Amino acid sequence: MYFTRRLIGMIPVVLGISFLAFMLVRLAPGGPFDHERRPASPEIERRIREKYHLDEPLLSQYGRYLSGLLRGDLGPSLKYRNHSVADIVMQGLPVSMTLGMCAFLFSLGVGLPSGFYGAARRGGFGDYATSLIALSGVCVPAFVVGPLLVMEFAVRKRVFPVALLESPIHLILPTVTLGLYFSGRVSRLLREGMIGVREAEFVVAARAKGLSEVSVLLRHVFRIGMLPVVSYSGPMLADLLTGSFVVENLFQIPGIGVFMVNSSLSRDYTMIVGLVLVYAVLLLMLNIIVDVAYRWLDPRVSYD
Amino acid sequence: MRAAGTPRWAREELLICFEHLSTPLKIALQGLFVLVSVIVSAGCVRNEPRADVVIVNGADPESIDPAIITALEDYRVVPGLFEGLTRIDPETALPIPGLAERWEISDEGREYVFHLRQGLRWSTGEPLGAEDVVFSWLRLLDPRTAADYAAQLFCVKNGEAFSTNGITDPGKVGIQALDGRRVRVQLNHPVPYFLDLCASPTMAVVPRRVIETHGDRWLQVRPLPSSGSHTLEIWRLNDKLRLRKNPLYWDAANTVNETVEFLPVGSPATALNLYERGVVDIIWDKDLVPSELLGDLKQRRDFHDFPYIGTYFVRFNATHPPFNDPRVRRALALAVDKQRIVERIIRGGEPVAHHLVPTGVANHRAPDGLIQDGVQARKLLVEAGFPQGKGFPVFQYLFDSAAGGGAKVHAKIAVELQEMWRRELGIRMELRQLEKKVYLAAQNGLDYDLSRSSWVGDYNDPNTFLDLFLSNNGNNRTGWKNARYDGLMHQANLEQDARKRSELLRQAESLLVSEEAVVIPLYFYLGFQFYDGNRIQGIHGNILGMSAVRTIRNKAVRK
Question: Which chain B residue's Cα is nearest to A223?
Fold first, then answer.
């Protein structure tokens, strides 16, 4: 019931976003068909705009877009005129999602243990060491980490391929590059979350029952300390799954992250709106999942 | 602070940790592991063996539909798939017979009759005939196609009227199939470079059946009928485009590779790394290697450069004072030290430009142009009423922030020009950098004083540069209208004698760059290719920068 209500609630939000996105992209000067070389006759320019209905009033263009959207048609790309936006998304999204999923798991796989360790050793050398590493992960951007990793492991040591996506091995460097930042965030969030509840009453009670410290940390502290990470996971996963321009560009990975940036540069209106919608739907869905996970993790939370 | 009892992270204890997790979490973790393994293997394992020749082509082709393509990246791929009546000789960049084996020219260059080769076939086996040529050319003109380059056929009788809706009957257009193998083309006026146009990828012959059935999505059809040396095997945006030899191509005996792959690579460093690791065989653009390394890369044996049909120049907005005065424009042009720009900023060995049409273009006789002369420049400024630059308004230099290495070059040149004009003429220029599309809009709307510009020619004739500055050309973008220039150009293109025509074009160009100085040419482009000459053969550096896909051979691949 709750789930259904939330899903229905998504519809007006998505519509609102599509409207805003559709109108906002038109504010930028220039259009998809402004090139270095103009067609030799203004008539041809007019014709091209007419073909893609850019000559109609904005609202009627939006209406046309919306009716296409209801049929699952995101329109043709205005830059890649032989491709529909849906084609491009269907082709690139799985790739971005694969990389994003790997980076997500990498972030959790590195971030959770190091955050847990930091919290357990709070104030000790281990805490400072993991915090330092986590912070540098957060601070050093992917466009610095990526080339350094490529230089060392792909160009000098030749352990990994330099770019492209042809086998799971090709995923390793991009995953680390993409996941490093998020693993730092996860590590910090978990550490803070766990420290916040380490002395809570239910934890003291658990210790009083005679549980070992490992057990207390894992079964009680971790579970509640995990909540900030869970709330962060929704937007993080939405970010990761829709691809990253820097990483996809650097490793030449055929995802949709590159299109996110390039479509706005080339004023590919339909593509921008389509990608914004994909991102929005993913984010909204993931937020619902996060809320459900909350209830499961923390018995104090309830939705009616 | 409570630190007692914290676990030691021995291996057993990690196992204990896992034991401590609740059962649903354990199951979820295991499920996740399996799921991810499946996704990862499905997402990236591709059973696509390496192509014979792998080329870094720069940006993704926006399209490979001959009627739509405008970018160089598209132009380099399309001739492998679709051929026209003529094709470009990869060594000389001049038109040679393509689908047509010969032609007759009559009526003082106003009528062409092309004879197609016997037994031409699409890659899918259907016969290819004169009707296909007529269909393809009418399609380029057809308003519904909305082709950027429709104007290439405006020289054809009624071509423009058909394209801009005056005439709806295609039968009235001067393109007719006389029989299955002969096409007659009637022109409004002689076009000395018409055979060059016929070799242009935009005028290639495309498959009617597929286009009529599938509309704008015809290129997604497999197998896609092709008229060129190769067929389309894979086209995934931002991933790869792979061509495979077309055994039914009329000249298939001379196609020296089985598969050719074009990779779009966005990052120059990545392109170079892929090349160094041997993943790709050829990089064919300068912007595709890191500009910082260009100095070193130039010394290498696998570096190849050649004159290329492109010019970097500055446009004046000739509609406003003080730049509506030719003396002011000439003064600024004379004060530029082009050598310094080429040596300090461009650094690829590009030649300085004193005229607009690049050296080496066919039928071109170069005018002298304006050679740097500070004294003369100052004198002109005095004549125009601005001694030592006094009273000269502060003006702006418009340039764009294109992505990639190019943007830095534009900014560096802007700063250099600013300093040169300040020092030589005592005038002050402000820099105005805009994002690419905004910059184009500003240039089109004449919302600028001076603007960075460049042009790459479409065909091997001076006309592809000089017609830009005709009064009514949409790409003029200077507001400069000159009846004498228009007259010279018109006269030149009616001229049958090639030498006289070149001379008329020279006069027009001289008017443009010397007397009126509407543009300041800075340097000519060079084409760049990286490949190991011992391994890769049959790649050519012609002035159009279009090496034929069919002749590129990788010796490391056994036939």
Answer: B21
Question: In A, which residues are within 8 Å of B141 by CB distance?
Answer: none
B18: nearest CA partner in chain A: A218
Phi/psi of residue B313, each to 5°?
-150, 175
Give CATH 3.40.190.10 domain extents, chain B: 2-79+228-302+533-554
- CA gap B455, B313 in Å, rounded: 8
Amino acid, res. B417? L
* Percent helix / strand / coil, chain B, rounded to 5: 40, 20, 40
Residue of A nearest to B32 (CA): A105
Instruction: Name the superfamily (CATH) of residues B2-79+228-302+533-554.
Output: Periplasmic binding protein-like II (3.40.190.10)
Question: What 8-state DSSP symbol labels residue B468?
Answer: G
Query: Interface pTM (ipTM) of the complex?
Result: 0.89
pTM value?
A: 0.89
Dihedral in degrees, nearest 10, Cα atoms B481, B482, B486, B489 = -110
Q: What is the pLDDT of residues B256-306, one digit of tens each?
A: 999 999 999 988 899 999 999 999 999 988 778 887 788 888 899 999 999
B261 phi and psi angles, rounded to 5 deg: -120, 135
Structure tokens at B188: 């409004």
Query: Chain A neighbours among B 67-126 (CB < 8 Å)?
Result: 68, 70
Are the beta carbons of B485 and B432 closer than 8 angstroms? no
Residue with tokens 């005038």: B427
Secondary-structure breakdown of chain A: helix, strand, coil percentages, each rounded to the nearest 5? 75, 0, 25
* Annotation: CATH topology of A99-255: MetI-like fold (1.10.3720)
| B269: nearest CB among A50, A76, A147 | A147
Q: What is the CATH number of domain B306-526?
A: 3.10.105.10
Q: Chain B, 432-451: which have a CB under 8 Å from a chain A CB? A: 435-438, 440-441, 444
Q: Mind listing the pLDDT tens digit for each residue in A147-175? A: 999 999 999 999 999 999 888 899 999 99
What's the CATH architecture for B85-214? Alpha-Beta Complex (3.90)
- Neighbouring C-beta atoms of residue B317, cutoff 10 Å: 22
Contact residues, chain A, for B160 at CB < 8 Å = 41
A 10 A CB-CB count for B13 gives: 12
β-sheet bridge partners, residue A76: A84
User: How many other CB atoms are found less than 10 A from the CB of residue B120?
Assistant: 22
